[in-house]
Amino acid sequence: MKKREKYAYIALLATAVLIFISFTLTKFNEDIQKRVYKLQVTSLQNLSKQGGAVVEKNLEGMVNTLYALTEFLDKDDDFVNEENLDRLRKFAGDRDLMFQRFGLADKQGIARVTSGKTIDISSRKYFQDCMRENRASSEIRKSDITNEMICVMAVPIIEEQEPVGVLYGCADLKMFSIYENTILENEEQYIQVIDLDGTYIVKEPSSMLGKRDNIFDGLSRVECQTSLQEIQKKVRDEEPVYIEISDGTSRETVCFTPLKLNHWCVVTVMDRSRITDSVDFILGNDVYKMIFRVAVGVLLLCCMLVYFSWQEKHQIEKFNEQLMYDENLFRIASEKSGVIIMNYIMKTKQLHFVNNHMFGLSFPDRVDNLPENFMKYIPRDETKLKEEARKIIVSMENDIGTRVFFLPIKRPDGRDMILRIQLISLSGADGEVRQCVGVLEDATETLHLREKADRDSLTGLFNRSRAIEKINEVLKDFRVKEGSVHACMILDLDNFKQLNDTLGHQKGDEALQDVAKILRQHFREYDILCRLGGDEFMVFIVNIPRNAVERNIGSLLKKTTLIYGKEEKKVSITVSAGVFLVSEPGCDFEKLYQKADEALYQVKHGAKNGYKICE
C-alpha cells in the first residue's frame, strides 16, 4: 500500500512538474514572440521616421532651390519671357539640380516650359495653391510633355507681397526612392512613399498593398482592425498610423509616417505572419520535446534550458547582424543624399555618426558620454563654436519635435562653412524619447544665394523687397525705449543727373557706391540700409533718442557732400532727406514711405541739400 502511495505521489509530482514546465514554457514561447515582434515594430517605426527625414530633406532642398530662383527673375509686367527662361536654363545647366525642367506661369495660368512648350496650368492644384494660399505646393501627375508620372514642385512669385505668378519644376519620381528592399530576420521589409490621396510616389509592387495603384484601394481589399476612414483621416491630419492587415493568407504590419513639408507620407511594410510562424515552428517543437523529456528527470530539463538560452543568444546575434546590415544600408542612403547622419542614444549618452567623412570634415564613429567628452573635439580658441555645440547637445537631450540649427565652422583647408543640423526625436513603444536623430548637410551655398538675392548688386545694401520685410518685422514687434523713436529716412542725391551727363554713368555708379559706404560707416549694424532704386536710398534707424535725430542727420549730410571731376567738369553731389519719426505701434511700411516721401518732396522743391522731419 505504501509502495502504491509512493508511486502515486511520484506520478502526481511528475504530473505537477510536467504541468508546471508546460505552462512555463508555453508562457516563455508567447513572451519570446511578443519580444521579437516588439523589437521588429520599433525598428520598423524608427526606419520609417529616418526614411521620412531623408525624403523631407530632398523636398525641402527642392522648395528652397525654387524660392532662391525666384529672386533671380525680372518681375516686370511680362516676366514670362524668353530672358527669364534662358536664366532658368542656364542655372539648371550650371548646377546639378534635382529638376528635369522648369516652367513659368502668369496669373492666368499660361505657362512656358524651358523645353519650349506652352501649356495652360490654371486648373491644376499646385498652381491654385500657390496663387490662393501664397505657399509652396506639389502634385503627382502625368506629364503633358513626356507622358510619364512626375512630381511637380511649385512656389509663388512674389511682388510687393502679392503672388504675380508661379515658378515650378518637374522631377522624376525615382529621386524619392529611399532604399532598396531590406531583409530583417529573413523576412522582407518595404519602404514606400504616397500622397494624401494614397497615390504611390515610390512603390514596391511585391508587397500586399503595392499590388494596387492606390494604397487605400489596397487597404479596402484586406482585413484590418482599423477602419479605412479612420486611417485616411489620420494620414490627412498628419498623424502617425500603425496597423496590422491580412488577406486571409498572410499578415503584414504597416507604419505610416507623415511628412510635414508637403503632406506626403512614408509607408513601411513588414510581413508579420511569416515571422510569427517561424518563431512558432522553432520554439513549438522544442517545447514539445522538452515536455516529453522532463519525465525522465530534472537533468534533461536543465539541458533543455541551456539549449533555450543558447537559442535566444543565437537569435540576438542574428538580430545584431541585421541591425549592422540595416546600418550599412542607411550609410549608403546617406552617402547618396550627401548628408551626415548622427544618432544620440539617451540612456547610454552615446553619439554615433553614419557617413561621417563628408564635406572635407571627419567626425568620430562614436562619442561616449557626449555631454562631457564632445568638447574635446573642438579647438580651445573656438569659444563661439563651443557655445553653439552646447546648445545643440542640450536640445538633443531635452527638446522634442523637429529642430533646425545653423553651425558656422571652418574646414581643415581654412574655408568657412555653414552646417545645417536638423534634429528629430524618436520615441520607443512606450512613448518615451529614446533617441535623437540628426541630419547634417552643407548649407553654405544655399545661405549665400539667399544673402546675394537680398542685396543690391551695385551697392551691397539691402534691396527694396528685403528692406520692406525687415522693416515690417521691426514694426510688428514694436519696441522703443523711453524718449526714443524709430526714424524712416528717404535720401535723394542732388545733381546726380548732371553728374551722369557730365562725367558718365560709370562715375555715377561710383558716387552711388561712395554714398552706400558712408551710410554703412555712419549708421549702426542693426539699422536697415537700402537702395530703393536709381539715386534714392532709404535708412530705417532703430531706437534712436529723439533729441539725437537732427544731430545725426546733419552729420550725415556733411559727410555726403562729394565732389567729382576737375575744373570746368567738376560736379558737386549733395543729399536731400525726408524723415518720418515713429513713436507708437500701429504704423505700416506704406505709411512710413508716404510720410517720408512727402517730406523729401518739400526739400527737393526748396533749397535742396537739407532735410525735413515730420511725425
Task: Explain what you see.
The chain has four domains: 34-60 and 176-276, 2-Layer Sandwich (Beta-Lactamase); 68-169, PAS domain (Beta-Lactamase); 338-444, PAS domain (Beta-Lactamase, 2-Layer Sandwich); 454-614, Reverse transcriptase/Diguanylate cyclase domain (Alpha-Beta Plaits), CATH 3.30.70. The chain is built from 15 helices and 25 strands. The chain has helices at residues 2-70, 82-94, 125-133, 215-219, 228-236, 272-293, 298-337, 370-373, 383-398, 444-453, 464-476, 496-503, 505-522, 549-559, 589-604, and strands at residues 101-105, 110-113, 118-120, 137-142, 149-159, 162-172, 182-184, 187-194, 200-202, 223-224, 241-246, 251-258, 265-271, 340-345, 350-354, 366-367, 402-410, 416-427, 433-442, 484-494, 528-533, 536-545, 562-564, 571-582, 611-614. Helix 1 runs antiparallel to helix 6 and helix 12 (496-503) packs across helix 13 (505-522). The radius of gyration is 34 Å and the shape is elongated. The chain starts with a helix and ends with a strand. The relative contact order is 0.07.
